[in-house]
Design goal:
The protein is an alpha+beta fold and 371 residues long. The protein has helices spanning 73-77, 166-170, 173-184, 196-205, 235-243, 253-272, 280-292, 303-311, 344-354, and strands at residues 69-71, 90-98, 116-117, 120-125, 133-137, 142-145, 148-149, 155-156, 159-163, 190-195, 209-213, 217-219, 224-226, 229-233, 294-297, 322-325, 328-330, 338-340. Strands 1, 2, 3, 4, 5, 10, 15 and 16 form an eight-stranded mixed β-sheet that branches. It has a two-stranded antiparallel sheet with strand order 6-9. α4 (196-205) crosses α5 (235-243) and α4 packs antiparallel against α7 (280-292). The radius of gyration is 19 Å and the shape is globular. It starts with 68 loop residues before the first strand and ends in a 17-residue tail after the last helix. The relative contact order is 0.23.
């Protein structure tokens, strides 16, 4: 497996919501449709962190407040939510999306109508905000979708054994939040979503992201062509990188999650190195690119609120961020799907709810994706 400082994308069979079979139940190469759904989410986690570097200069960017789309999660979900515990830190559900329209249509994502979601990330920021934990939820995880209300007011009944990544396109982002909360018992304080085109624009705005690969990667499917060593990738190359699946693990969604997490950390570190206070023009450019691609919960849906939250995270060091995949096992009925592995998953969520150290035993996943 090629270890790099950035991840490949999670393939998605966006049209059908299904994933191609894994050879012998263990990760056969996925279809062409799937690889389009890349690691947009990779920088979702930094959506709440990016503006921290702008510090007290955030008021200069009040003119781009209108870029941010707000989502009233509380109104959409209602009172059917986990209790917010006084010592549980902050929990942010970070999600990627790909509308396949507008600028996204030019990024080799395929000509598919409708919005799609990529792998979700629960970012837990403990009290004191010194070390964050990022938990990836594989898109192929079978879950129980709770009863939800669509944006148009339509009620959607609860359903069992629903593939996690189908919820966004079928019911909407508020239902994804509700599903994650019921799966984990963890109250989501905030929701952040960024689209595919925004990923490319942000990487270009910061001047690229440096990655290191320990082997040559030549992937005709994603377009990536890298030799062994260190490279600084622009936005387009970064998209190719996070979409690359050939030669990485078994080519499955699980095999790519570790690489996605590595890229997230590299991108966070790159942003923290930016002298945003010393370069207002660059800070504005980054903020403009980011906010144009953002959807957040209503509490963060202004540059002022987003920047204030970001500044509160200044103590979070990307190099110390712990990245974990939700422990999963291959489903006994359908080996092309996974289910939460017990007792590991319950132990992990319990530790996050209580804002305590996650036991090593809760980080081990029976299904590894060939890693």
């Amino acid at each position: 497996m090629s270890h790099v400082s950035t991840p490949s994308s999670a393939d998605a069979d966006a049209d059908t919501g299904t994933a191609p079979p894994r050879g012998g139940g263990r990760g056969r190469k996925r279809g062409r449709t799937g690889r389009r759904r890349t690691g947009r989410w990779i920088l979702l986690s930094l959506a709440v962190l990016v503006l921290a570097g702008a510090g007290t200069g955030y008021w200069l960017y009040s003119g781009i407040d209108g870029n941010i789309t707000g989502l009233d999660i509380d109104r959409s979900i209602g009172d059917d939510r986990p209790e917010k515990l006084p010592t549980s830190g902050q929990n942010v559900l970070i999600l990627g999306s790909d509308s396949r329209a507008g600028a996204n249509a030019k990024l080799n994502t395929g000509n598919v109508s409708g919005a799609r979601s990529d792998t979700a990330l629960v970012m837990h920021i403990p009290e004191g905000r010194k070390k964050a934990v990022a938990v990836s939820i594989p898109r192929d995880t079978l879950v129980t979708r709770p009863e939800c209300t669509k944006a148009d007011g339509t009620q959607v009944a609860s359903a069992k054994r629903v593939m996690f990544n189908s919820i966004y396109s079928q019911v909407g982002p508020a239902c994804v939040v509700k599903t994650v909360e019921q799966l984990s018992g963890v109250r989501m304080d905030h929701y952040v979503e960024i689209d595919f085109a925004g990923f490319k624009g942000l990487v270009d705005a910061i001047g690229g992201v440096t990655v290191t690969v320990d082997q040559d990667i030549h992937d005709s499917s994603s377009g990536l062509d890298l030799t062994k060593g260190t490279h600084k990738l622009d936005g387009t190359q970064s998209l190719e990188f996070v979409r690359t699946r050939h030669g990485i693990g078994d080519g499955s969604d699980l095999g790519r999650i570790g690489l996605q997490q590595q890229f997230m950390i590299a991108l966070l570190a790159e942003i923290q190195k930016q002298d945003l206070l010393g370069s207002p023009v660059k800070a504005y450019k980054i903020a403009d690119k980011l906010t144009a691609a953002l959807t957040t919960d209503s509490e963060l849906a202004s540059l002022t609120k987003l920047a204030e939250f970001g500044r509160s995270l200044n103590g979070v060091n990307p190099s110390t961020m712990e990245t974990i995949m939700l422990p999963v096992a291959y489903d006994k009925v359908d080996p092309n799907r996974v289910v939460a592995a017990e007792p590991q998953a319950s132990t992990l969520w319990k530790a996050i709810r209580a804002d305590t150290t996650i036991p090593e035993s809760a980080k081990k996943s029976p299904a590894t994706g060939g890693n």
